Amino acid sequence: MPGLNSIAERTCYCARKNNPHRILDGIVSRVGALLLNVECCIHPGHLPLRSDFFYSSRKPRPISERQDPAHASLPEGIELVQRTDVEFEVDGNVKLRGWLYVLPGAGRRPAITMAHGYAGVKEHGLDPFAQAFAEAGFVVLLHDHRGFGASEGTPRHDIDPWRQIADWRRAISYLETLEVVDPQRIGLWGTSYAGGHAIVLGATERRLRCVVSQVPTISGYEQGLRRIAPENVGAIEEAFSDDERAQQRGEPPRRQAIVSADPGIAASYRAKDAIDFYLQPLPEGAWQNDVTVRSTRAARMYEPGHWIARVSPTPLLMVVATRDTITLTDLELAAYERALQPKRLVTIEGGHFDPYLSMFKQSSEAAVEWFKLHLG
Question: pTM (2 decimals)?
Fold first, then answer.
């Protein structure tokens, strides 16, 4: 574990947006000195790579009533979320990397494992969800899929849904090894393409005590019928065949853009909301607009909706956007009807990306409530 002096240099203080009080800059800077006395609660056998601290003040006292932080412990209402860079190994000696969020405190706690959807990285709007879950008292592991973001894996930006599912099982196993985690109380949250993974894992991974599937992929085949004009299907199939022939000759997998508004550029998505979401400002090097062609073929073959009736008896929450043109609202609602109890449906006004953006409060609070109900 790096020394707390170095951690303090990377400290970030965040107040919840719905909090009517603000922590004065002078108070915050003095509270930062207390980091020198914070004891790391991460198991020393799993060496973290880097740590950041996030403050949230959900129920603060007025500033005038607080004890001088230079002579006291952390003020009441201030909670410290530690976000640590972690890594764990999956098949093929590949290291997956991500962020582990922990609130201070003794004892084992319930945990949530999270990952992003098609070609997304953890920086694509998932940190606020992880922060909300951690502030609610859960240990949270948010990882990048192999070949994306901080994780290892070649070829880069190659999406095999079944490999991602197998890797995610290893993330669950990793969580079970942590001293801060109660291995009998682990839940899973997945969104979009990984919302489909959440359904498959909910049906096949009985270590999970509950599952949240947000705007999930239900049927790659049905999505393809809606999003690709019939006259263009032949060209796509020929592109798949050309890619296979090229790989047989020893060439690397061919590539295409993930998003593009230019019809002359092959791309996975052309909708404006998808372009805006994927091309949002991100840290340099975190993501690039590139994916293998064979990832599209795998997506068109992926049918997680076939597993939904088998999730039971694991409790399932589905969060569905009412105008989703990516994973398709009607497919999601029909799949929910096929699911067995215990289950819950939460509908969010808007399109596929609104649960991350304008409707974040509603989508995140629904998930927190579900996890509290079933993980304690």
Answer: 0.82
58 and 162 part of one domain: yes
Supply angle C-alpha 184, 186, 191, rounded to 5: 165
Secondary structure (DSSP) of 116-176 = --TT--TTTTTHHHHHHHHHTT-EEEEEPPTTSTTS--SSTT---HHHHHHHHHHHHHHHH
Tokens in use for 68? 């001088």
Number of domains forming the structure of the chain: 2
Both 138 and 242 in one domain: the answer is no
Q: Which residue, among 184, 180, 182, 186, has the nearest Cα to 168 in the 3D structure? A: 186
Question: Both 56 and 126 in a single domain?
Answer: yes
Structural domain that includes position 336: 4-222+303-375
> Distance (Å, rounded) from C-alpha 42 to C-alpha 175?
11
Helix (H) or strand (E) holding 268: strand 267-269
**Tens of pLDDT, residues 39-94:** 333 333 343 445 555 444 333 223 223 233 233 344 455 568 999 999 999 999 99
CATH number at residue 114: 3.40.50.1820
Q: Which stretches within 249-328 are classed as H helix?
A: 272-278, 293-301
- For the sheet containing 139-143, what is the strand order? 50-57, 78-90, 94-102, 139-143, 109-115, 181-191, 208-214, 316-321, 343-348
- Which residues are bridge partners to 189 per DSSP? 114, 212
Same domain as 240, residue 347? no
Nearest one of 126, 186, 142 to 315, comparing CA atoms:
186
| Cross-strand pairs, 213 | 190, 318
Domain boundary pick from 254, 281, 298: 298
375: which 2 tokens?
Answer: 């993980």
CA atoms lying within 13 Å on the CB side of residue 367: 35
Torsion region of 343: left, alpha or beta (phi above 0 gives left; psi -120 to 50 gives alpha):
beta
The model's pLDDT over 95-141, given as tens digits with 9 standing for 90+, comes to 999 999 999 987 999 999 999 999 999 999 999 999 999 999 999 99
Domain end position, chosen among 272, 298, 324: 298
* Same structural domain, 126 and 35: yes
Identify whether residues 321 and 281 lie together within a single domain: no
Query: Residues 347, 249: one domain?
Result: no
